[in-house]
Amino acid sequence: MMSIPDPSLSPDEFLAHVTSLDLNTIVTPLLHNRNRPLPSLPGGRYDEGAAQEWCERMDTLLVSPQLFQYP
C-alpha cells in the first residue's frame, strides 16, 4: 500500500507525491501557498499590499477554468 506524505509535516514530499501522480489541480495551489505572505510588520501584522496581491492571485486560481479541465 502506498503511503501518502502528510502535507503539514512534509510539504516537499507531499508536493513531489502529487506531482508524480500528475495532479496539477493540487500542485498549483500548493506552490502558491508557499508564497503566501507572512507577518513582517511590527506586532505580527501583514504587509497589506503583499497580502492583497496574494489573495487576488489565489482568487484567480480558484476560478480558473483550466483547474477543471481533464485530459
Structure in words:
The protein has 71 residues and is an all-alpha fold. Helix content is 51%, strand content 0%. It has helices at 11-20, 24-34, 48-62. The longest helix is centred in the last third of the chain and has 15 residues, at 48-62. The mean pLDDT is 79.
Percent helix, as a range, is: 40-55%
SSE string: HHH
Class of secondary structure makeup: mainly alpha
- What is the multimeric organization of the chains shown? single chain
Radius of gyration: 15 Å
Q: Could you tell me the mean pLDDT?
A: 79
Q: Cα distance, first to last residue?
A: 26 Å
Number of DSSP strands? 0
Strand content: under 5%
Q: Which overall shape is indicated by the principal axes computed on the Cα atoms?
A: flat
Which stretches are poorly predicted, pLDDT < 50 over at least 5 residues? Answer: none
The major sheet is characterized as: none
Count of individual helical segments: 3
Q: What is the secondary structure topology, with strand pairs?
A:
Elements: H1 11-20, H2 24-34, H3 48-62
